[in-house]
Amino acid sequence: MYIDSHAHLTSNDVFPHLEAILQRAKGAGVEKIVNICTDKETLEHGLSLRQRVPWVYNTAATTPHDVEKEGESFFPLVQEAAKNQQLVAIGETGLDYHYQHSPILLQKKFLIQYFHLSIQTHLPIIFHCRDAFCDLFALADAEYKDRPAVLHCFTGSLDEAKGVLDRGWYLSFSGIVTFKKSETLREVAKYAPIDRMLVETDTPYLAPQSKRGKSNEPSYLPETVELLAQIKGVEAAHLAFATAKNAEKFFSFSKQQGNV
After folding, report:
1. Structural domains counted in the chain
2. For the segment 227-253, what is each residue's pLDDT rounded down to a tens digit?
3. Which range marks the domain in which residue 150 is found?
4. How far apart are CA 256 and CA 251, in angstroms?
5. Is the Cβ–Cβ distance between 146 and 168 less than 8 Å?
6. How many C-beta atoms surround the C-beta of residue 80 within 10 A?
């Protein structure tokens, strides 16, 4: 059993091909997918998708890239969906100083707003973070201490991973860990306890090594799991089961079973 903890199923690049993608996911043993909604259109499609595909679950937030463009207009929609128990997490939200498509102060403002929404609705947070871990840790320690979170598509250093784990958060590994030049990330995976690991595709991005150049999809998740299992010295089935169990605990899927 696999759980893809982060996929953009309702993005423009994926949604037109979704039925075939979901069919291949089922064939590969993917039993649940967490769909990340980042604007009004992807959230509307996500909520509709959940009505007919009950093994797909939704999260929502404006990414740090887009808070200048869409932060104000999208936040009330995320707030409404969260309060109506239509989401299993808030995210992806966070800080990205690598590209700085939105001003840093505005990124911080919306991150704090999402912290407060998460606390109000008792939902965990999915973080996006690049070149901003010091500020992320500082803001979380001030506004979101001792609350659940996952660092999606983690690509930071071992010290940054320790900062994540020290706060009781999860590390989510994507197809990047399979890339030939990802030795540092494989060291992080070796260090991380299995009970703090999630796996994801980040569909349609970051297809694993054997699929490089292709649009990623949930059916490619086993390649990432198999590589992580080799790093951890366990059977792939064991790692698949363990990361699925972690995802079940983090997202509390069972609470949404009746809300389809």
Report:
1. 1
2. 999 999 999 999 999 999 999 999 999
3. 2-256
4. 10
5. yes
6. 12
Q: What CATH number is associated with residue 161?
A: 3.20.20.140
Angle of CA points 229, 231, 235, to nearest 5°: 25
How confident is the model over 132-138, as a mean pLDDT?
A: 98
Measure CA 231 to chain center.
22
235: how many CB neighbours lie within 10 A of its CB?
11
Cis peptide before 80 (omega within 30 of 0): no
What pLDDT, on a 0 to 100 scale, did the predictor assign at position 255? 80
226: CB partners within 8 A, 6+ apart: 236
**What single-letter DSSP state applies at residue 144?**
S
pLDDT at 260: 57
More confident: 24 or 100: 24
Q: Under the phi-then-psi rule, with left for phi > 0, alpha for psi from -120 to 50, and beta for the rest, what region is 53? A: beta
pTM listed for this prediction: 0.97
User: Residue 118 and residue 126: Cα distance in Å, rounded?
Assistant: 10
